[in-house]
Each structure stands twice: as structure tokens, then as C-alpha cells.
Amino acid sequence: MSWLRALKQTARSGFAVERRRLEPLVAARGALGLALVVGVALALFGPAVAVSSAFGAFQAAIATFQRSWRPRPTLALASGASLAVSTFVGYLTGAHTLAFLVLLLLWTFLAGLAWAAGPTAGLIASSNVAMMLVTVTLPTSVATAAGHAAVIFAGGVVQALLVVLLPVRRWGPQRDALADALAAEADYARRLRHDPVAAFDPVPLMTARSAAAVTPREARRRPAELHGARGLAERVRPVLASLADPAVGVPAEGPERDRVRELLGAAATVLDAAAHAIRHGEPVALPGAALAALRTPDTGAILSGPPQRAALRLAALLGDVLETAEPRTETAGARPPHHPATLTRPTLVRLVPVVLAKVRAELRPGSPVLRHALRVSAVTAAGYLLGTALPFGHGYWAPMTSVMVMRPDFTQTYARSVARFGGTLVGVALATGVVRAAHPGLYTSAALAVLCAFGMYLLMRTGYAVAQVCVAAYVVLLLGMVGEGPPQTVRERVLLTLLGGLLAMLAYAVYPAWETPRLRGRLADWLAAAGRYAAAVAAGYHVPAGAPGSAVREALLGTPAARVAWQEAVGRATHEPVRHRGLSHAVAEEAGHALAQFGRAAMLLEAHLPEPGAPPLPAAARLAEALRRVTERGAKAVRERREPDWDELRRTLAAWDTEVPDPVLRKAARLLLEALDDLSGALRNG
């Protein structure tokens, strides 16, 4: 893709507005916290302290909107505390340009590395640097700076208390994540009726798994219906695929296929009912016709063999889903935190060594996070020096823009740069027009600023440009409280915002971290993860354990995670203005399809795992070992730009065909080899 086309694509994505479900009550709660903090600070301490407190409460509320599964009060407190520390430390060196520049370089570098811990940590850290650049200009002494830091932290405390005192949909994000996973499987079942080999997007299941991890304290308070449905959903998916696939199930047409379509439709209805009950915390509206279709006795007369076993397993799993989704009066304490089905999440204190380990892992040449940290720290320092040297005054707006728009990948950095400038232009113009027309007083300006913050909280998930309109107007009104005139604000903010965005875009062009050259590595990671999953499933035939054991489940978790990482990498690479080095877009699509089929074949094998007490299958151990070895060697070959060799698996399957009596298992194992051959063909063509 050429640079001109890449710029057009990123600009279009930056100005895109998505239709999202708005949360006015949550937005109103954040605005209420901001209004309380600003109002009290304004009445007791004056406009300068009110502005500092506003930044703390504003940023703490934004933290509660992030896509994190941490408790919202924890996010608000972490944001307020970290911003207070950043502001105070920044003020200690703010009077000395060189000392502050060194601190700014260090602080921004650490904020860039914080992206290793996840987007929420990265955003909070980046926002702290941006807010620090503004707030260190407000105090006049060390004691005053400590007071400003205290009111900033108080803003975080107020937002945290409001989340506790005015809850809106307790466990709402977790309910939505689990309900979305069940709804995605319902949609999958419907698509399988018409396309027996339809693909399934693993993102909803991965999101539900992330949402299911809880701290010990949360495990005692979590609603009972959020306990087990996620694990059941993971087990339903391979059964649905096995029931529908003609390769290991019933013929493509005929009475058996009609019966399978009926079962898939009933499964979709049941899954939708469970999703609705979990999302709203209501009793399950039992779909009588669907339950009758699943339990009708003529299934055994129409289906036989593996399809019949799959149908019986499906009915049993759906029954468990309905039972789990039913709200109960018991508390989550009925399930102890150490229960093997509970996914544990470390507390913030225990999370520190985990984050440090992730950061250390990124301190290596070629790491996108390390490149981002170096890039954003250099750009922020350059922007600060340029802003100070230019005759506009308040030069912190240029580095503040840079640190807020820069991300570890090209698309987000360029899209946010363009969107921030456009949103700033509109927001500043609107706020200036209001100020000039109405000449609001101190308290009226504060009220208008709170109203702009409410608009930002309400619309922030619909698009970055829309949110920036509200943010720009908020800053203009807020800084107007401490005496900055609108004409000066317009000129400075627009020009310095443009400068900061251009610096961010130039830095990525000069020192990029392109995703395109890393596509082979992402593909190799997916191949290795899929190979471990297939090997674990095959080993389950050698030592039958009934339901998928921990080894299969653990291996399965790595596969969708690697697949999602591959899909995200391909999405980022699609918009990069670089020629491919190793994988073109067409080859990447073919290779991804081949590995998806490999995962599907392994999933079909999982759906037919033998019951406990079934006779072991010695040939399965050899198949598992062959799968593990060839996929490990194949992943290494993909990274080294060599053609993978599957001959060992081919020889193993030749013996498997003669030793395994079940034709379904033979066919599913053969599909594994066919998918790997397709992968080799795609790479060979590229």
C-alpha cells in the first residue's frame, strides 16, 4: 500500500463513528463526580485548585470506562493516585527546564513500556504524562503543589466512591461478555444449518474467558450464574461443529441432515435464551419447542454412531447451560476461590511482579513496545522544547497531543493524530463561540465544562474524533476559569495540537514498528499453538478421560489466543505503507484459512473423545507425538522462510488408517494433514 493510500485509510478510520450502545447513567455518574469535586474545590480554594481537581476527577472517570475487568473503583483510585504522584514529581523539577526535560523523558519512556501490561495500563500512564504537562504549571510552591496533588487524588477517591454508592448494572461488563459468547455460539449454530463448515470467530469466547478471571474477593461476591456457563460454551462449540460437518457426521442431504438442522436450530434458540437471561439477570425463558426438539426420542431412530453421540452430548451440555444460567439466591461464596473452575486474577499488589516480568520481556531489539517507548519519549521531549521555543506560550499542548495520540502500531497513531486535530478544531470553535456569545462566569464555565465532560463520557466509545470535540471544549472552558482568553486558547491549542500530531506521525515514519515483516512469526505461533492442541486431543484417545481434561483445555486456550493475535496483526498490516517481506496479503489469507481448517479438524476429534473406561487407542499416542513434532518443526520452518515438511505425520497416518477401526476418527485425522498441506501450498505460492 502506498503512503498516500495509507494516509487516506487511516484518516477515514480516525473520523469513523460507530453505533454503540450508550450508557447515559454511567456517563452521568462520572459527570456528577466531576461536578462535586470542581464545585467544592471552587468554593473552598479557588479556580486554580478547582482546575487541578477537575483533571484528577476527569481522568479517574475515564479510567472506569476502559475495557478492563478490574473493579471500577480500583481503576479510579489507581488513576487518581498515579496522576497525583506524576503531578507532584513533575512540579519538583518544573522550574528547571533541563531537570524537567530529563524527568519527562524518563516518565514518558516508562509510560510507553506500560503498554506491555495492556491497553488500560498504557492509556492511564500516557494520560498521566499528558495531564502532568498541564498541571505542573498551576502551583506556585512545593506546599501548593502537594495540595494540588492531594485534590487530584481526591478526585479519584470521589469517583471510586460514586461507583460503589451508585452502582449501575453490577457485574454488567462480565454479564455482557458471557452473554455475547453464548449469542455468538447461537449464531454459529444457525450458520451451520446452511454452511456445515462455517467458520467461528473465537474473540467472544476469549473475551468471556478474560472477564471470568476474578480476584479472591470478587470470587466471593460474583453472581452464581456467572460461574460455569463460559466453560460449557467452550465445550459446546466442538460438538456443534462435529454434528454439522459432513466429513465426520451425516450426509449433506437426506433425513439425517434435516434432523441435524433441527437440532442446530434448537441449540441456537436455547443458547440465545441463556444469553438473554445472563445479560439481564432474569430467569431463563425456557423455549419449549426447542427443548422438545432436543429431547425427542426419535433422534436414536434417525441418527446413529458418532452423530448420535454428538446429539446426545449437545443435549446434555445445553441442559447444563440452562441450569447454570438460571439466577439463584445463593451468593458466589458457595464456590470457594480455589475451585478449579474459577479463573484467578491477581490483586494489584500481586500484579506488580507480573507487570515487571512483561516489561522485561519487551526490553529486546525489535520489540514494538520498546520502539514505542523510545519513539514517544523522544517525540514528547522534542515537542516540549519546540513548544517552549515558539512564541505562543503554553507549549505543553504539543507534547500533550503527541503522548495522547501515539500508540505502538501505525494505524492507531495516524488515525488518532488526524482525529485529534479535527476534533480539536471543532471543539475549540464551538467552545469559543459559546464563551464569546454568553460571557459565562466562573461557575457557569465550570458547569459547561462538566456538561462537555458528560458528552465525552457518553460518546467516547463511538469514535475518537467525536470524543475529542468534547475534550477540546472541556479544556477551553476549564482553562478559561484561570484567566486564559478564548482567542489565545484557540490559536495556541489548534496550532500546537497540529504540531504535536505531525511530530507523532513523522516519528512513526522515521522509526517504525511495522507489523508486516512479523506476520511469519505470528503465523508460526498460531501453527505451534494449534499443533499443541491437536496433540493434546489425540493423546486423549490414548488415555480416555471423558470430558476434555486440563491438558486439552489448556492447549485449546492457546490456539484462539494465537489466532486472534494473527488476525489483529493481519488487520494492522493491511493498512501499512510497506511492501510485504515474506507474506503478501493474499498468501496471509490463504495460510490463515488453512490453519483455521487445521484447528477445526482438531476440534472434530475433540468432539468424539471417548468416555471414561473406554479401551485405550495405542495408535493415538504415536499420532499425538507426530503432531507435536511436525508442527514444532513446521513453525520453525515458517519463521526461517523454509517450506514445512509433514512427511512424519503422513507416515503416521498411513499406519493410523490400518490400526483405527472408527472411520470418523480416520477422516478427522486425515483432515489435519490436508490442512497442513494447504498451508504449505499457500506458503509455496507466496
Question: Quick gist of this model?
Answer:
The protein has 686 residues and is an all-alpha fold. It is 74% helix and 0% strand.
Account of the 3D structure:
The protein has 686 residues and is mainly alpha-helical. The protein folds into three domains: 24-167 and 351-510, no CATH class; 173-334; 516-685, Methane Monooxygenase Hydroxylase, Chain G, domain 1, CATH 1.20.58. The chain is built from 28 helices and no strands. The protein has helices at residues 3-14, 24-44, 47-64, 72-94, 97-113, 119-135, 142-165, 172-194, 203-212, 216-221, 229-244, 255-280, 288-295, 299-302, 306-325, 348-362, 368-389, 397-405, 410-438, 442-459, 464-480, 486-510, 519-542, 550-574, 585-607, 618-639, 647-659, 663-685. 52% of the residues are buried. Mean pLDDT is 86; it is low at 330-340.
Shape: globular
If you average the pLDDT, what whole number results?
A: 86
Order of helices and strands: HHHHHHHHHHHHHHHHHHHHHHHHHHHH
Structural class: mainly alpha
Q: Beta-sheet strand percentage? A: under 5%
- Major sheet attributes: none
Number of domains: 3
User: What is the alpha-carbon Rg in Å?
Assistant: 28 Å
Total beta strand runs: 0
How many angstroms separate the termini?
Answer: 17 Å
Protein name: FUSC family protein
Keywords: Cell membrane, Membrane, Transmembrane, Transmembrane helix
Organism: Streptomyces gulbargensis
Subcellular location: Cell membrane
